[in-house]
Amino acid sequence: MTDIQNIIERCKIVTLAHQPFFGAGASKMTWEIDDSISTACTNGEFIKFNSDFVKSLTKEEMVGLAVHEVMHVYSKHHLRRGDRDHELWNVAGDYFINLLIQDAIDAEVKRRGVSCMKLPDGGLIDDKYRGWSTEDIYNHLKQESENDEPQSSSQGTQGGEENTAQGSDEQQQNQHGQGQSTPDPNADGEKQAASRKETWGEVVDAPANTPAELQEAEREVEVMVEQAHSLAKSRGKHFGSAEELLDSYKKPSVDWKSVLRQLMQSLSIVDYTYRRPHRNTHHILSELGAFIPDYHRENMGEIVVAIDTSGSCSSEEVTQFLGEIQSICEELQPSKVYVVQCDARVQHVDTFDLGQPFKIDRIHGRGGTSFQPVFDWVEAEGINPMALVYLTDGYAPAPDVPDYPVYWGVTTQKQGHLFGEVMSVNFGQ
Hints:
alpha/beta, Rossmann fold, 15 helices, 2 domains, about 15% strand, about 45% helix
């Protein structure tokens, strides 16, 4: 048996003994030497590694590497990237999984005084991301790299020409031991993320090309995690984050469009009339001299639909927003619809009367994010809407509460600070 094989087998045994939740996954996947890569990677089926890199690690770091790759798979990072930037997705994934791994390390230290694994020096970890999804972290990092000012401003930022998020990236590097060299001020956030990522293992997309293959791959991961959790629990070595991961698999998918329609339909007026017989039964009952009243829905009043066109919302998301607005308005038939495009300020407003074709020619904005300007615009225009619908990724401070209903369609988990009816929007990525 070669030295590399000894290292791998010892790593599997130690992980199974002290961290069985992760050890089960590490043992299930195939380990392969691939000296064409700089560190290690996984696609859910294998863990490939550079032999020189593995030899350079301590025993604890080797276990940490194995657990790191396993957690990418447990989190389905190889199945969820979509069209997101590969390098930035890896960085977001690291921020997500390293917090969970650190929790497992702390639990093991509490249990037996020492841990069999160690996160690498410079590993990306920041407690501010606790409770965030990988998608949320990705959007936040992307927004930091694209916006011209930090997002801490209560009114957001305007414009998108100058990238001043560099200081935030540099501060994160210093906080997490990423080196002392000064980043290139002209490099964008995603390139810096890529340079950071080269120091540790990564996740690559699974070899699944069809929806059916992706669904099967997801189910295989879920089965793997369920088995790993059962093994760890039987040995008394499970921890809360594993159960939270399992719970996330079981959360039902909610059709936000149906929920929004139901909520807004409750605002419209429904009445019954005997002027028109029920179209399905009048031909039978009219012969008996009886009629069933039909119902009709009066048109809704005016509604305002705000679209977040800041840099953190992709063009695809904004396009999806517009499509959903059209379908909702066709069904509810408001007397007038104001479509407000807003980033850090109101950039453009389109007004559509009942029956007028719904068409938006272009997207305006792509700067920072602030919700308040939309509500200020409604007040300034003297509009008293039946409701306001705001479609956004949620990354801005909550505005002042108005005296009309507000419905939020949010593409991330950044929702807790918002008032009114808040619904999760999932476009299937």
